[in-house]
TrEMBL record:
Function according to Swiss-Prot or TrEMBL: Probably part of an ABC transporter complex. Responsible for energy coupling to the transport system. Part of an ABC transporter complex. Responsible for energy coupling to the transport system.
Residues annotated as domain ABC transporter: 17-247
Membrane topology: Peripheral membrane protein
Transport keyword on record: yes
Cellular component GO terms, alphabetical: ATP-binding cassette (ABC) transporter complex
Domain of life of the source: Bacteria
GO biological process: cobalt ion transport
Family: Belongs to the ABC transporter superfamily.
Signal peptide: none
Protein name: ABC transporter ATP-binding protein
Transmembrane annotation, as ranges: none
Main localization category: membrane
UniProt xrefs under Pfam families: ABC_tran
């Protein structure tokens, strides 16, 4: 048997995300991650929970190679996150930042959504189709010719999601997707995210939102992955919640929510 085939699964069978023994210290010496292991299968929606300073952003910045692992490895759909693969990795890992204005800078919504695919070489009808599809998936097709700065915050967040979906990413990473959204916009975004056929990793302090959207959660605390399991099960674990400064809103009962699939 070919020895390579026993250690390197074909990309189509590899998990969307495989983080192994990831450790990282910032240049000032602060150790932010200590040997994190995390595997996410295709199509899973996973919430990344943890108190302030846990290392969540540090972990996310490793997924598309903004930070380089001190030790351990990260692979996206079987492709190692390494300098020689960065262009491909950045097409596969779509990050939606907390502030949509960090991602929207073109005169119109259409141009913002077209920016990534055009930079990747798409032109003409293929590019138009990609933009239309992404805007339809977030319910913003009717806004293509509007300047992003004329849209509401919730609409801008949806366009930011479309800019990332237009790249047809392997994994969609969202940083606090529910922040600053009113209840209706929050629900609409949840419906959109549930409808997508893509792997989702969502960083959030909004525990009810994690429960609503993600069947699975992982808890990072002090740079260590301290829990990995069903979101409802984790949120019902009072000792886990208390010891990692995770708090549910007053009166919220995680058992009362009908679970996502
Ligand atoms: N550029 C940096 N240099 C040194 N230390 C840093 C740097 N950025 C973050 N840290 C430290 O690394 C640790 C992890 O930070 P990180 O931003 O990853 O946490 P987080 O879980 O995303 O927090 P939050 O929920 O507050 O966004 C913290 O102790 C933080 O102070």
């Amino acid at each position: 048997m070919d020895p390579v085939s026993t250690t390197t699964p074909p990309a189509s069978f590899a998990p969307s995300l495989e983080v192994s023994g990831l450790a990282y210290a910032y240049p000032d010496g602060h150790q932010a991650l200590f040997g994190v292991d995390l595997s996410i299968e295709r199509g899973e929606r996973v919430a990344l929970l943890g108190p302030n300073g846990a290392g969540k952003t540090t972990l996310v910045l490793h997924l598309n190679g903004i930070l380089e692992a001190g030790a351990g490895s990260v692979a996206v759909a079987g492709l190692p996150v390494a300098k020689e693969n960065l262009a491909e990795i950045r097409r596969k890992v779509g990050i939606v930042f907390q502030d949509p204005d960090d991602q929207l800078f073109m005169p119109t919504v259409r141009e913002d959504v077209a920016f990534g695919p055009a930079a990747a070489g798409l032109r003409g009808a293929e590019l138009t189709e990609r933009v239309t599809e992404a805007l339809e998936r977030v319910g913003m097709a009717g806004f293509a010719d509007r300047p992003p700065h004329h849209l509401s915050f919730g609409q801008r967040r949806r366009v930011a999601v479309a800019t990332v979906l237009a790249m047809r990413p392997e994994i969609l990473v969202l940083d606090e997707p529910s922040s600053n959204l009113d209840p209706a916009s929050r629900r609409e975004l949840a419906d959109i995210l549930r409808s997508l056929d893509v792997t989702v990793l969502m960083v959030t302090h909004d525990l009810p939102y994690a429960l609503e959207l993600c069947p699975r959660s992982v808890v990072l605390s002090g740079g260590v992955l301290v829990a990995d399991g069903g979101t409802q099960e984790l949120l019902c674990d009072e000792e886990l919640m208390r010891s990692h400064r995770l708090e549910l809103p007053f009166g919220f009962d995680p058992r009362s929510v009908s679970l996502p699939v």
